[in-house]
Amino acid sequence: MITIKNSQEIEYMRQAGRVVGETLLKLEEIIRPGITTAEIDRLAEEFITKQGAKPSFKGYYGFPASICTSVNEEVVHGIPGDRVLEEGDIISVDCGAILNGYQGDAARTFSVGTVSEEAMRLINITKESFFKGVEKALVGNKLTDISHSIQKYAEDAGYSVVRDYVGHGIGKEMHEDPEVPNFGRPGRGPKLISGMVLAIEPMINIGDYRVVTQSNDWTVVTVDKSLSAHYENTVAILPDGPEILTLV
Ligand code: MG
Ligand code: MG
Which residue range is the domain that position 144 belongs to? Predict the structure, then answer.
């Protein structure tokens, strides 16, 4: 069931979203060669709790940390730990927070020091594909208008779109209906109406779209070990157009 949020709920989600957006901005400043993913996680938890919110990933299906940190060929759900980031790595940070009983969810892929031109292009195209999707997040459109727009942009750039993981509705729960695929034909799925809130989150690979989960049961990697990037925001569909709640 798709839940429609009233203006008070949208305001709560705006506040939760701001916590997530601010946290990701702060993490961008501290990510550099030599830092461990556990240290990034520790700081994320500190930033979230300082803003009066709670990290929503911690304990979610037993997830042991406050953020997901996915490096290079890791796509999503990487677990922070003693891995030391190196010059030239790329790292996707996925962050969720709950405030006033409502969720915010967003992800960015950051470069660590100076990265290859190829890696930088992947990061940029992934981010741009999100905005191509958001352009279609309009009242009266169909859900997969968003999906198709993301896929077309990413594939026209020569990349592939992850199929096994998708975006989602969001509200009191982190994952609500509907699923928001980053691929597919346009004009399908539910009609977009005012008050829907969606986490739109393209996961884009340089190589093959296929992914596999590692033996820790969490970390998802590309089958061909090609680089992968992730860009996500929580987006409210409103009469005047989409509002990105997690972008500050
Ligand atoms: Mg997320
Ligand atoms: Mg999400």
Answer: 7-244
**Could you tell me which residues come within 8 angstroms of residue 39 by beta carbon, excluding any fewer than 6 positions away?**
none
Ligand lying nearest the CA atom of residue 95: 1
Q: Cα(49)–Cα(201) distance, rounded to whole angstroms? A: 24
How many angstroms separate the alpha carbon of residue 165 from the centre of ligand 2? 9
Mean pLDDT of the chain: 98
**Number of domains, the chain:** 1
pLDDT digits (tens, 9 = 90+) for 56-85: 999 999 999 999 999 999 999 999 999 999
Q: How far apart are CA 237 and CA 39, in angstroms?
A: 35
Pairing of β 220-222 and β 233-238 = unpaired
Q: How far apart are CA 14 and CA 201, in angstroms?
A: 18
- Give the Å distance between the CA of 67 and the centre of ligand 1: 9
CA of 44 to the centre of ligand 2 (A): 17
Tell me, yes or no, whether 2 lies in a domain.
Answer: no
Ligand that lies nearest to the alpha carbon of residue 175, given by its number in the listed order? 2
What pTM was computed for the model? 0.98
Using an 8 Å Cβ cutoff, are 37 and 69 in contact? yes
Q: What distance in angstroms lies between residue 28's CA and the mean position of ligand 1's atoms?
A: 16
Q: How far is the CA of 120 from the centre of ligand 2 (A)?
A: 22
Q: Provide the CATH number for the domain around residue 129.
A: 3.90.230.10
